[in-house]
Amino acid sequence: MAKAKAGNQDDSEKKVVKDTNAKETRLKPDRKGPLINPLTRQISPDSLTRNLRRDQNLRIRPEDLFIKTRYPYSRTSGRYPTDNYIKLEHDVEDRLDKLRQENRRLRQEVIEKTDALAKKEIKTSELEESIKRLENSTEELSQQQRLQYLFYNVHPDAWEKLKNDETFRKSFYMETPCPMFIMSIDIRKLTDLMLNAKDPKSYQDFIITLCTQLKQIILDNYGVFDKFTGDGVLAFFPQFYTGEEAAYCAIKAAAECHDFFSAHYKKNRSCFTVILKDIGLGIGIDFGETQLVNVQDWLTVIGTPVVYACRLSSVEAGHTLLNQQASDEASQKFGKFTNLREYEQPFKHQGKVIAYEVTLAEKTPKIKPPDWLAETTPEKK
User: Fold this and answer.
1) Fewer CB within 10 Å: C terminus or N terminus of the chain?
2) Between 15 and 122, where is the model more confident?
3) Is residue 277 located within the same domain as residue 329?
4) Are residues 280 and 326 in the same domain?
């Protein structure tokens, strides 16, 4: 019996050690946490931690994780946004909180005055006045939510101008179409890529890192990120925002996206059971009058160029195709800096069409920065 008790005591001690180890494991970043923030659509700190751990010499500080996952890196200034950008975001969030509280108060006020009017305790004009204040508050809240959305989908150096320049901000919500380049990125053979992944977690990390970097490339080339489409990315380069070099910026962004995918896939071959040779991105670019639309404070684009950019993105992996209008614009301004050749591409319900495969030439133009960047970039002494 004594031996049995001793054995039980040993087992108990072992269990305690095991529980202690489990607690230590919990101190590490939770790998089962959300991989993407639904509001910012940014990679999660946990995923970033796993990527950063590959470099054993890199010290990971909590503040670095917050900045790198929440704010895009600016190659223009060569740094991550810091105090100024965080302050701008906090100002917007504080303003949103106050507006939400005021909106709730006004809603309750309208309900109470509606009941009071039914009991003939107040005049109709008092209720109408409250309703008007509620409508104004709701509109202001909607505008602030749109501003918060824009923060995470444009170049970080445009944030301050968005916050302080009402004319610039309203240009994103014009009621009339405006000329812009539309870029659709499609991850070709995405289903096969997923089926060949060794496990779901490594595939998630691969895709999230890929999509996050594609977004970063778009922002760095002065494009506006629209959304992840499930199997790719949609972005646009409006002339009022990107500037006169919108054509070249879109083509350059496409080339950088191809380069990143090739390097990223090669680097992560160990995540897959079979390495597909013809895997990569299909990218389509079109140009024309496109309407920016606000859908529940979420900005997106609609129009014919969007349709054809998406159809062109069904091209074989590794290619970027321009539609006729996009080709005309690009060759007119940047003919010396791009290589174009005709390319037959089948379209659904339309048969084969002539598009133009585009690559960057060795010679590069001197890109004039957008007006908002020239205003925010300090002069070099």
Assistant:
1) C
2) 122
3) yes
4) yes
CA distances, 368 to each of 114, 169, 246, 373 (Å): 57, 21, 10, 10
3-state secondary structure of 303: coil
Question: What's this model's pTM, rounded to 2 decimal places?
Answer: 0.71
Question: How many structural domains does the chain have?
Answer: 3
In a domain, 178, yes or no: yes
Strands 224-228 and 319-322: unpaired
Report the C-alpha dihedral over residues 97, 102, 103, 104, rounded to 10 degrees. Answer: 90
pLDDT in tens, 234-275: 999 999 999 989 999 999 999 999 999 999 999 999 999 999
Residue 340 and residue 193 share a domain: yes
Residue 94 falls inside a structural domain? yes
Residue 139 lies in a domain: yes
Q: Residues 113-166: pLDDT tens digits?
A: 898 888 888 888 888 898 998 898 888 787 777 777 788 888 888 888 887 888
CATH of the domain at 311: 3.30.70.1230
Question: Per the domain annotation, does 368 fall within a domain?
Answer: yes
